[in-house]
């Protein structure tokens, strides 16, 4: 019996050692992209690196940024994908200067030098006014073309917008108007718009869900989500308001110290080159690099962009959200 217990104990220790070894050799990637895009990345990595154990873990922007801020270089993540650029700038000091591995010819405003070569841009995601034309026809409403048009009382309870306090999409609409009209002017605008708002949704996709259900006629939402619905047959039309499409960006980086691990470097190099292009081709085609070709059906080309100066400042964001009252 004693020999039996010794054998069981030894076996348990061997199993624990094996699990420990597997965890220590796992390359962990924090992804703040939508989960379906993270799953697609996981499939690509499994196929590209059958000899490695690579794990893509979904981590929302806020949670990922908070964890990185607290844990620093000792965090369990090796690579960060799709973190909102403003938050990336807050943790940039713990990232390795490895942008030279990128073969992407970025447009000038997104050159890796903006991060001191410690990160690269992952995507630009923009917004638009998304119109359910069936609902407009049902209520005999005209197609709005400007922010001013949205103030017309005929659109009462026919508009939805993401809440800037909980949604990056809502915030970039807010910031775009602040850049054009100043803080007081933007807040006055939203005071005037409020009677026409059916709901300030918690998530960025909330307005499009209401649009799908026919509960509203106009959504202030993300262009790529709207195009996805259009390609499914939804009767939506996109309008870029007179100030242009508001937008934000996300970035990708490698944690300091991981540049000494050749396997992590292999994975990172693949992500910021091959996986990057695949993601743009399939999901998020707004231009970030030269000679980029938009391959998504019905996606608008030559998008006019709004002035988004200061969109990457988290201090500015905190200041503006303190003044948001809805």
Q: Can you walk through the features of this model?
A:
By secondary structure, the chain is an alpha/beta fold. Helices cover 40% and strands 17% of the residues. It folds into two domains: 2-124 and 248-282, Periplasmic binding protein-like II (D-Maltodextrin-Binding Protein, domain 2, 3-Layer(aba) Sandwich), CATH 3.40.190; 127-246 and 303-322, D-Maltodextrin-Binding Protein, domain 2. It contains ten helices and nine strands. The model is unreliable at 1-23 (pLDDT under 50).
Supply database-style keywords.
326 residues; D-Maltodextrin-Binding Protein, domain 2; disordered N terminus; 9 strands; 40% helix; alpha/beta; 10 helices
Low-pLDDT segments, ≥5 res: 1-23
Shape: globular
Biggest β-sheet, characterized?
9 strands, mixed
CATH architecture tag of the largest domain:
3-Layer(aba) Sandwich
- By CATH reckoning, the class of the largest domain would read Alpha Beta
Return the structural class.
Answer: alpha/beta
Q: Gap between N and C termini, in Å?
A: 70 Å
User: What is the overall pLDDT average?
Assistant: 92
- CATH homolog superfamily of the largest domain: Periplasmic binding protein-like II
What is the number of E strands? 9
Helix fraction, binned, reads 40-55%
Short note summarizing the structure:
This protein is α/β, with parallel strands linked by helices. 40% of the residues lie in helices and 17% in strands.
